[in-house]
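Hi L.,

You mentioned the student needs an example of a multi-chain input paired with its predicted structure. This one should do, with 850 residues in total across all chains.
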Amino acid sequence: MTQPASAARKDAPTSAATPDTGRKGTRRPALVRWDVRSLSLLGVLVALVVVGGVTQPDSFLATSNLQLVLTQASVIGVVTVGMTFVITSGGIDLSVGAIVALASVWATTVATQEFGFAGILFTAVLVGVGCGLVNGLLIAYGGMVPFIATLAMLASARGLALQITDGRTQMVTVTEVLDLGVKDAYVLGVPPLVLVFAAVTVVGWLLLNRTTFGRRTVAVGGNAEAARLAGIDVRRQRLYLYLLSGLCCGIAAFLLIVLAGSGQNTNGNLYELDAIAAAIIGGTLLSGGRGTIVGSVLGVLIFTTITNIFALNNLETAVQQIAKGAIIVAAVLVQRRTLRGGDA
Amino acid sequence: MASRPPLLTMNRITKSFPGVRALDGVDLEVHAGEVHCLLGQNGAGKSTLIKVLAGAHRPDDGEITWAGEPVSLSSPIAAMRLGIATIYQELDLVGGLSVAENVFLGNEPTSAGFVVRGGRARAAAGRLLERLGHPEIDPARLVGELSAAQQQIVSMARALSHEVRLIVMDEPSAALDPDEVDNLFRIVGELTADGVAVVYISHRLEEIRRIGDRVTVLKDGRSVAGGLPADTTPTRDIVSLMTGRTVEHVFPDRPPGAAAARDPVLRVEGLTRDGEFAPLDLELRLVETVGLAGLLGSGRSEILETVYGARRPDAGRVLVDGVPLRPGSVRAAVRAGIGLAPEERKAQALLMLESVGGNVSVSTLSRYSRAGWLDRRAERAAAHRAVRELSLRPDDPDAAIRTLSGGNQQKVVLARWLLRGCKLLLLDEPTRGVDIGARAELYAVIRRLADEGLAVLLVSSEVPEVLGLADRVLVLREGSVVHTAPARELDEHRVLDLVMEGNPTP
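Structure written out for the whole complex:
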């Protein structure tokens, strides 16, 4: 009966004693901490490149094909960076594809094109941010569930895009915009679109890993109630996150305009699913609290490479969809195992 | 009764969770047809024991026999098959389903094995509710629309929908009016007359006197007395058994009156929330520790959270250094220098996927950043200093928070506010889920923080903790302060009398 008390007595003095003064050497922070998951994704990507190189040695490894793969990855990649932030915060943005469509058609109307390059870029970004603002206000201050609010935005933005175009393809006539897509604009062989993607990735990585904004995003996603009680303005953080996702959609819409030379209301179809899938297989937790930009980008590259290899080998899109599905399942199973291993 | 073997015997049951030994050798013997009361302070192991009985936790060691046969309660279904039913304190009903659907959840009357016979379920639920004295509850209504007391009845109907031989009731009277308590006792009487055994948990001694047959007392995960007669054992003996801990050694001494000369940091004026707590006035000085003692549901946590701005008051205000805070704003409270260590540490305070350092600095991020850009070295160094200050083990800011014991996790929460430099610390059940041994260390930390100039407002259902740490104690019962006194003028028995019975007995 007296045991707890005596144990307590024995412990009490230790707490009063000054803790050790020997300062541990500050651990050197690695620039990018390559965890097991990112490495395994990199392995999958390398394996895919090998498969592509073996099956179609001439066409797959050609510079022009690699440029194409990276260009195609750029549009969805920029969207995925924004999506990664939203998912890390425990939210979801189903409206990204619709916002890309709306931004791309609004930026390519005859009226907008009169303002030239700046008019198109500005409009695309503004429409994206505007849609993100509506999403953010509904979710953060209107108390709506992200799934519902962004589903509503998906429907309305697609509808509005259709209304603007009346189903027609809007060709771009501003030559400065079209010039960005041609070979002459490549910087050391790298298409400008890919440079934009790279820049968004770097900025996204820094934002998530090196700023208070990123830390708060993780905190809100990990435990919103704890974040609130720790004095974080959770609602404002949520608003900013959907704004950020909208901004990424606006940038992606501009890239798509350059790539396609036109704006269409069917643009960005099912981008939401591709972006969510890429983020999830990259290692971002759907429940929030953990996110990785590097993983998301690897996820995007894997998906785009698969599409490319299938196309080069003249395989049906049906098979390609099945392969994508299998990869998602495999990645999430691996993720569950690593998580459980970490708990032990 | 004695001629037959007991219905249930539990022998030397132990159960550990990471960092905590919840049960450390519990014996329990329950006979058919008796009301067996389980008594013990919070953290004594009652909830864990119930969960072992219900098959929700598997014990690490010990043996259980049922009607003379050894059994293993390996799952809730196994317990249910034996005829053990549990009515939990937090009701486990599905709000979006009807009364009848809840009663027969997982056990629906069906045709051809899967077509639910809704009509039959409703009729059967109606009969059960009538037997429980509540024919007015419509079996077709959604459970979410019912009052707490009615939900309790539904929960009981669910327990009785099986062939039941032992029924566990965890503080069933906590949410009930006196009339409803009478009805509850009538039901308990009918059940025992039918030979059903009842394990009854309550803090209210007068209830145990009224309906109990025998009493088992738990303390620190052990059964310290079993099979005491419920009606004749003196209250004094029961309370001593519950509290027998020699706490004097655990709490550091403190000279009285240290706070008297200091400035008041917190003033609470007429703060109230309807249905939770009555208008409260309170003044707190630097270096002073004030304790709120009371049972679950006495409004103690609600008061802390309202002071902190996490709940919006219906009336009254909170002033820090004479400046009123914006009501219902956590950010205003944090800016004014208030920090909260909440009751549910994992749900309300910690980022379980993060490192120790990330958890410590989360309220102070802007201090370690310029234009939003984090100076991670400064952040980590500051977090390191803060956890070392509190002798966290290991004092490694990169350690994953989920690998820490309960006591060390609590230190991380304290370090967060220490780093922030707060003036007033609100502690809600600071030692919940913390081992006895680690508690003493936490007490020393709390005391040191107060001595170094913080004001502390402490809530605890462990009376020794309140008495040992606080300079002044407010005793709460059902949302009102029933007594205020310097801690050294109170003792544990008197406080327990006040919180359990409300009327001060000398």
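You could point out the following to them. Chain B touches chain A through 58 residues (CB under 8 Å). The mean pLDDT of chain B is 86.

Best wishes,
N.
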